[in-house]
Amino acid sequence: xxxxxxxxxxxxxxxxxxxxxxxxxxxxxxxxxxxxxxNPIHMWDAYDGELRCTYRAYDHVDEIAPAHSLMFSLDxxxxxxxxxxxxxxxxxxxxxxxxxxxxxxxxxxxGQSGIISCMAMSPLGGIYAAGSYxxxxxxxxxxxxxxxxxxxxHAGGVTHMVxxxxxxxxxxxxxKDPDILCWDIRNPEHVxxxxxxxxxxxxxxxxxxxxxxxxxxSGESSGNVQVWDTCQMSSLLHRASxxxxxxxxxxxxxAHAAAVNGISLHPxxxxxxxxxxxxxxxxxxxxxxxxxxxxxLGSAENLLRLWRxx
Length: 310
Fold this sequence. Notes:
By secondary structure, the chain is mainly beta. It is built from no helices and 26 strands. The protein has a five-stranded mixed β-sheet with strand order 15-16-17-18-22, with no helix packed on it. A four-stranded antiparallel β-sheet has the order 1-2-3-4, with no helix packed on it. Strands 5-6-7-8 form a four-stranded antiparallel β-sheet, with no helix packed on it.
């Protein structure tokens, strides 16, 4: 299957996100934003790959500061960008350097420290969640960005998060952390339950929840995909203090030969997309082995696959 569109960034891509009101019948809405190392945020046309505009953040010495995570508001009017101890909010209709700065951590008031590595907007609006490489998960009000809750969450930096379709739960995953944690938004100070997966690298392993709010999917370093039926834990909602409760996967299948770091459920069709790939390092070899026969890198796999869910 050939790519319908390929956009070349100039350096390592940190994050990207699609415009939430995108409709193929309206070309003006067909766009997405991306951020990469040592560059401003770019808005790309999803039809021809042309650069539409840039959103530029500057640091204290007036040099370009790259965003580490991106998120649109539900109405598509604002673009939230994660930085070190700060979230910047740009008006989508006003490219350039003007933005609202929301500081997440100060020594005098504490808060959420570290690089804001991922964000998720509640489907109900009003609040959004942010994770940081300092292993914290925080909730903020959409208007004004006031801190509502901040907890130390994972064994490693938080790399991805997703809300359930009804906005009542938040699922988070961390770097080199086997636990996916489920948080009840009504009581965000305690873990509701957890799910386990194999994550052995520093990659961002994506999560996704289906539109019914019942199923959660994620990939593993082993190449497997796991599916959890979160409704199995409904009877334990009153035992939210028991963080040791672990939900077992309802389905596990082998999807790739390499780590499955990307995963996405189609919003209304029974389709699942998975992406694989990881950095491979040369294995030590003896001097007697010939360079021509060296297969120390192993077999690399960088694939996108589509699965039909029955």
